[in-house]
Specification:
Blueprint lengths: L1 E10 L2 E11 L4 E5 L6 H8 L7 E6 L2 E2 L10 E4 L11 H11 L4 H8 L3 H4 L15 H13 L5 E5 L7 H18 L2 E5 L3 H7 L2 E6 L2 E7 L5 H42 L5 H7 L4 H10 L5
Parallel strand pairs: 3-8, 3-9, 6-7, 7-8
Antiparallel strand pairs: 1-2, 1-4, 4-5, 9-10
């Protein structure tokens, strides 16, 4: 279905995506996880030819996405609300999407029926433009529009964002059912590990633009591995911040020492505690001279 070959994308000195080879098979339901800045959205934009790669290529069903647009006929995607035409009502937008794929209004109406519970009477019939909807309902409109023409490839970036818990539960069920009913390839990204593990039998872990693990998730077996990875990353970040704080504290101490030596200041331990920083040269001078000798 999708083949990624020697794909690289840089933003200045930062390497956003660097994937030597990765294959996503027809019918896969893949979850893409990683911290902020790991390259998830950038990878989606490269797959959808919304960004030009610095090197390498992406093919969908053997079609190079940069050289042909044939893949768009069987692909649906929602990355953010920039995909929406916000001066239309949801109905107008759905009919517009349907028309692009040769669907009549009656067919569009029929295909909206499975999403009734998901829309929760808050989308259709509201007589207002998309731009006036809440972030959660915009998210629903975007997801539905991506699925409306029954694409063989569905890509959703952070589909659980802005949704209330009930809607999150419903869309998880809808995505799994869609994957099973249509044997479609579904790729989602999410910061929520629980949702990703619940939905996706395959999970790609992205770090600094590189897919560092390709995890088979059977009966939520990937949950512990992912939690361990992210916990370790948090511990490493805390250690780095602690070391940076120590360095900064030493630099400030050295600065105070230089000022004290220049101005011949002297502080006792109680005064140092009030300032909130340890000043070795003050202690040394206090020990050698004594406060009464100043």
């Amino acid at each position: 279905m999708i083949e990624i070959n020697r794909l690289q994308k840089n933003f200045g000195q930062k390497k956003a995506v660097d994937i030597e080879k990765y294959v996503i098979e027809q019918g896969d339901m893949l979850g893409l996880v990683g911290n902020n800045g790991a390259g998830k959205t950038t990878l989606f934009r490269l797959i959808l030819d919304l960004l030009q790669a610095d090197q390498g290529n992406v093919t969908i069903n053997d079609i190079d996405v940069c050289k042909s647009e044939d893949w768009k006929q069987f692909t649906g995607a929602f990355i953010d609300d920039g995909f929406l035409i916000d001066y239309l009502t949801p109905e107008e937008y759905f009919y517009f999407i349907g028309k692009m794929y040769g669907l009549k209004k009656e067919e569009v109406d029929e295909r909206l029926l499975p999403f009734e519970r998901f829309m929760n009477n808050e989308v259709i019939g509201q007589k207002k433009f998309i731009r006036n909807f809440s972030a959660g309902n915009k998210q629903k409109i975007g997801i539905i529009s991506a699925m409306l023409h029954h694409p063989q490839l569905l890509i959703l970036d952070e589909p659980f964002n802005f949704l209330d818990p009930s809607s999150q539960s419903i869309i998880k069920h809808l995505l799994k059912k869609y994957n099973e009913d249509h044997h479609a390839t579904v790729i989602i990204s999410s910061h929520n590990l629980n949702h990703t593990v619940d939905v996706c039998p395959r999970i790609a872990l992205l770090e600094n633009g590189v897919i560092i693990r390709d995890i088979r998730n059977e009966n939520n077996s990937a949950e512990k591995e992912l939690e361990d990875y992210f916990n370790i990353r948090v511990e490493e970040e805390i250690e780095e911040e602690t070391e940076e704080d120590k360095v900064e504290s030493k630099q400030v101490s050295a600065l105070f020492d230089a000022i004290a030596e220049e101005l011949e200041w002297d502080f006792d331990e109680e005064e140092e505690e009030e300032i909130g920083i340890e000043m070795p040269i003050f202690k040394q001078r206090h020990t050698e001279v004594g406060r009464d000798d100043r």
